[in-house]
C-alpha cells in the first residue's frame, strides 16, 4: 500500500507507483486528496473523512497521512492487508528533527503502529522548482527489494533519503543515525487580508548545526542513499539515567 503527504496527485506519488509496480504483485494507493506536509502522525478525531475512488485500487482521502494509513489498513484493505506500506516519495529530504514533523514519516509510523512494516522515502533536491527524481525513480526498486530481504524490528520504520544527484552518481545505501537536523527555530510572518484582518504563516528557520557522529545529514551530504530506523519510543536514556538518581523509578 502506498501513501504520502504531498497528495495523491503529487509527482512523488507517480514515482512511487512506478517503483512499487516493479517490486509488488499488487499495489494499492491510499493518499491525501491535498498536500498534508507537516502533519506528522496526526489523525482526524473531530471531523469526518471522505474517500474518493481515483481508479483501480487508488483512493483519495480528505485527511492526513495517518488518516490514510488507518483508512487503508483498517477499512479499504481490511480483508486483504498489505505486506508492506511505502510512504512518499516526498519532495524534499526528511532528516534530523524534521522527521518529527514529517507527514511522510507519520504515515509510515501509523502503518507500523497498525502492524504493517513500513518504509518512508524522500528525494532531496537543490532547486525546489526543478526537482530531479532520477535517483529515487531509478534506484528505488532495488533499495526496496534489498531492505525487504533484510527485514528489521517490528517497532521501527525505515526512513530512506535519496541524494540530489543523478542515479549514476548516487553513493551506496548507508546506515546512519538521526542527526540534530537543520531546524534552528520558527518564524511567524503576519500579513493583512483584504478585509483588514491579520493572518499568519509559520515557517522553519534553518541553520547549519553540528550533527554528531554517523548522522543522516552528513551521509546525505556525502551523496549516499541514507537509511535510518525510527521508532515511537522517545525516552532519552541520558536524561533518564540522570533523573534516576533524583526520582524513584517505577517498578512493576
CATH superfamily: Survival protein SurE-like phosphatase/nucleotidase
Work out the helicity level: 25-40%
CATH topology: Stationary-phase Survival Protein Sure Homolog, Chain: A
Number of H/I helices: 7
Specify the structural class. alpha/beta
Report the sheet with the most strands, covering strand number, pairing sense and barrel closure: 6 strands, mixed
Strand order of the largest sheet: 1-5-6-7-11-8
Calculate the terminal CA-CA distance, rounded to whole Å: 39 Å
Protein topology:
Blueprint: E1 2-3, H1 11-23, E2 29-32, E3 51-53, E4 58-61, H2 65-76, E5 85-91, H3 98-101, H4 103-113, E6 118-123, H5 134-150, E7 157-162, E8 173-175, E9 183-192, E10 198-206, H6 216-221, E11 225-230, H7 237-244
Helix pairs in contact: 1-5, 2-4
Give a quick set of tags describing it.
alpha/beta, six-stranded mixed β-sheet, globular, three-stranded mixed β-sheet, single chain
